[in-house]
Every structure is written in structure tokens, then in C-alpha cells.
Amino acid sequence: MGYSGTAETLQQYNDVINRKVYIVKGYSKTEREAVIDNQFCEWYSEFFTSSAGGAYHPNEVEYLIEPESAYLSKKMSNEILDFGIIILLDTAQIKMTINFFNLTVMKL
């Protein structure tokens, strides 16, 4: 069954769960690619803060620019979330495996 209440009710529901969206922008090879990647990051932010994207509060959407793997691992291990979304953009130089954030199948 889908959500059928008002935006205000949706925000009250969102206030009781601990959730976050991480938009991780990797290394852009060219200036043009960086501009395009930044635009996609902006679009993802706009989507998730809209009603269609779940009405996330702006502080629930975190934008990480070219983060180091160790930083991501530490950040993810310190988070206690009920629900999380990770979007990886242009992360060719960051090792993208199931262990990207030091997660195992059991932790997922």
C-alpha cells in the first residue's frame, strides 16, 4: 500500500526514522565531466528532497566530493541508520566492490 497522506504527514513520518542519502562524486577526468557530474549531483539532491524522492530534509542528503576510501569506511561504520541510499557518481578510481564501505553481506 502506497503513501496517501499530506506532505506535512509525510514529514512527521520522516522525523521518526533515521535515514540518509549519500551522493558520492568520484574523480572527474576532465573539467567538462566535472560540470556534468556536479549537475547530476544537484539533480539527485533535488529529487530526494522532493515529495517524489521521499521528502528527505536537506540535512539528510549528504554530498561527498572525491572522498578517500578510509574516510568513507569510517563514516559508514559510525552511522546508525534505519534506511540509507548510496549513489556513486564517476567513481572509476574508487574500488567499487561489496567492500566499498567495508560492508559484508551479513551487515547488509
Can you describe this structure?
By secondary structure, the protein is α/β, with parallel strands linked by helices. The protein has three helices and three strands; from the N terminus they run αβαβαβ. A three-stranded parallel beta sheet has the order 2-1-3, covered by helices on one side. The longest helix is centred in the middle third of the chain and has 19 residues, at about 30-50. It is flat and about 45 Å long. The protein starts with 6 loop residues before the first helix and ends in a 19-residue tail after the last strand.
β-strand percent reads 15-25%
Mean pLDDT: 76
- Which structural class should the secondary elements be placed in? alpha/beta
Q: What is the CA–CA distance across the termini? A: 25 Å
Number of DSSP E strands: 3
Which sequence of SSEs, written as H and E, runs from N to C?
A: HEHEHE
Describe the strand arrangement of the main beta sheet, using strand numbers: 2-1-3
How many alpha or pi helices? Answer: 3
Query: Can you tell me the overall shape?
Result: flat
Radius of gyration, CA atoms, in whole angstroms: 15 Å
- The helix fraction, in percent, is 25-40%
Give a quick account of the main beta sheet: strands, pairing sense, barrel closure: 3 strands, parallel
* Poorly predicted spans: 95-99, 104-108
List the helices and strands and how they pair.
Blueprint: H1 7-14, E1 19-25, H2 31-49, E2 61-65, H3 69-78, E3 83-89
Parallel strand pairs: 1-2, 1-3
